[in-house]
Specification:
By secondary structure, this protein is mostly helical. The chain is 67% helix and 0% strand. It is found in: Membrane.
Length: 233
């Protein structure tokens, strides 16, 4: 299999911008809906329901809108795509940086929308073996949903599949299914409902990498044939 072509600078910039903007809006939805939920109710279960539904709705809208340009919004998904030959590693690195920067921008904007400090480091410790296993499961499942749709030729369903899985993951995983290193980093910047303490973030990211690697192996086994990158216009 030949190596994927490196994108020309202008095209790379356009796609990186889409990744930055999309990840920013995604994190803004995650953080902002968490703040709004805690302002409206003291019921933690209802807060999580509001947070998960808002995140799922944002994912559907963002993927449908930006998929013709680039709509991974997740360094693990981008890395798996590179490992499968869908994008060059150089381009994947650029996208990952854009995703992390976009996530931080989204967290800062969400803080400011609710009259909070632009940056307030989270004090929400999220740790323990169960949480770490939850992140492996969450990320592995996300990789299966994304690349199962791509490699079976059903890219038009990706927005709904990904959003549905993440909404469900809020509830069936112990970690509430972060499944995204860019989002994990961004959530350290907010001391709100969705925040993750900086000391907890490295283990989240490590478990996401483990889940992504396991997902890659399973994708290769279940869907051995490659297909074109779905974000390309």
């Amino acid at each position: 299999m030949s190596a994927p072509a490196v994108q020309p600078f202008r095209e790379l910039t356009r796609k990186a911008a889409a990744e930055l903007v999309g990840t920013a809006f995604l994190v803004c939805a995650v953080v902002g809906s968490g703040v709004m939920a805690t302002q409206l109710t003291d019921d933690v279960g209802l807060q999580l329901l509001c947070n998960s539904l808002a995140t799922g709705g944002a994912l559907v809208a963002l993927i449908l809108t930006l998929q013709p340009v680039s709509a991974a919004f997740n360094p693990v998904v981008t890395a798996v795509e590179a490992a499968l030959g869908g994008v060059s590693w150089r381009d994947a690195g650029v996208y990952a940086v854009a995703q992390v920067v976009g996530g931080i921008v989204g967290a800062v904007v969400a803080n400011l929308m609710f009259d909070l400090d632009a940056v307030a480091w989270s004090t929400h410790d999220r740790t323990g073996t169960g949480v770490w296993i939850g992140e492996v499961v969450a990320t592995l499942g996300l990789v299966l949903v994304v690349f199962g749709g791509i490699r079976s030729g059903r890219t038009e369903t990706l927005a709904f599949g990904v959003a549905g899985y993440i909404v469900a993951g809020y509830w069936f995983t112990s970690s509430t299914s972060v499944a995204n290193p860019a989002v994990a980093v961004a959530r350290t910047f907010t001391d709100t409902f969705s925040g993750i303490a900086p000391s907890s973030a490295p283990m989240f990211i490590l478990m996401q990498v483990v889940g992504g690697a396991l997902g890659l192996l399973l994708v290769r086994f279940l869907w051995p044939h490659t297909t074109a990158r779905p974000q390309e216009s």
